[in-house]
Structure formats: C-alpha cells, structure tokens
Fold:
Amino acid sequence: MSRIATVFDRLRQQNKKALIPFITAGDPDPTMTVPLMHELVKAGADIIELGVPFSDPMADGPTIQRSSERALKHHVGLKDVLAMVAEFRKSDMSTPVVLMGYANPVEAMGYVKFAAKAKECGVDGVLTVDYPPEECAEWVEHLRQQELDAIFLLSPTTPQTRIEQVAEMAQGYVYYVSLKGVTGASHLDLSEVASKLSQLRSHISIPIGVGFGIRDGATAKAVAGLADAVVVGSRIIEEIEKSPRTEMLANVAYLVKGLRSAIDEVSGKH
Structure:
C-alpha cells in the first residue's frame, strides 16, 4: 500500500479527516523548506503538498505567485525541490509528500528521468496543474511504473466526461478546487461543495480533498464535515510571508495546530 493510501486508511479507522498543507519549496529561501515541512508534520499535517516554483503560475492567486517569485530569486528549480524531499526523508519516512506544479519543468527534465528521480527521493504523488487527463495517459503511466500517485484537480466547472476520465486515472486522492478561478480567493459556498462532492463520489472511489478558500478553523471544520481531506495553501503562505524569520516556524505551527484541532472536532462518516 502506498504511503498516501496508508494515511487515509489510518484516518478512516480513527474516524478522522486529513489535513494537507501546501507550501512552495524555496519560500522564503531554500534553507527554510525542510524545517517548515517537519514543523507542519509536528503541528498535525497528514500529507504535505510541496509546490515547485514556476515563473508563470497561471492557476495560482497572488499569494502563491509571490511565494514562487521569492523561491525563484534563489534559483530554486525542480532538482532542488527533489533534493529537499530527499533531505526530509532522512528523518521522516512516513509522511507522504506530493509535488504540485506545472508541466514545463517536468518536460524539461523528461518524464522517465523525473519519475525515477522523484521515486528515488521519496516523493509519493504528483499533481501537474496544466495536464488535463485526456492528454496525459503516457505521463500517468510513467508515474505508475515508479509507484507514484497521479493526483488530479477537479473544479465546479469540470465537465462530466473529464470527471469520468479522472475517476479512471487518479490515484491517492483527488483535489477538488471549491471555487471557480484562482487559488486563495474567498467566498466558500458549502452547499455547492456538498452537492458537488456527492456527484463526484458517484464516480470516484478514492478520497477527495477540498481546498481553495479555507482561511481559518471554522472553514476548515466545515469542509472537514464534507470532504475526506482539507487542503490549505494561501493562508499558510501568508503566515510565512508576514512572519519574521525567527518566528516563522512557531507562527506556522500555531496556525496549523489550530486548523488540526478544528478539523478533529468533526467526526462521523459520510
């Protein structure tokens, strides 16, 4: 069983939901990434989504775009991100790490080389924002050969045919973007999320995580009542952005602990 499947299996048995924080590798600088990853785990993260910095992150809102810009000032590329995961794995062999990014850096490295290197460094899953499922059968096959989970995004506007394709190809979990548009925008419509999740679950058997627009314990708790996992990105990046370096780890930990305890107030299955 993969690390991701193992985590969801354990949480199901404990009647708990997954907390999946997102940070951008290399933000605010490369030396902080691995300590931040360990801090996230200590604070209650079940899976870490690690963003690969990219110069044109079209699906991301301004907060995550700025985090990419800060990382790129330090010339953090895909090879550096993989090295960070390898460093993290020296003392954490159980927390899954999902790389989230765009196709361009992967294509520059080559599918085969990337998949082999990602596996070797201890990556568990890959979410490539700009690979639609109808165009990436070969990519998914390369990931599968290395036992890496292909994670896909779905949104309120995803057509039925694409949902069915994702249901066939996705592994690990599916990430439902609960708002139209870019990451970090507010206006979370819980009734819309609830009805969409029930539609998705009629096709998708693996866990579904919900993200975009989760700002605090209240929204995290509300989403945890509907989804299998709560994904939090922009709010954590904001904490990194506004914290003095000496207080950053503590501030991020405090935020994530609050989200964790709010999520854990939710019990019961769908």
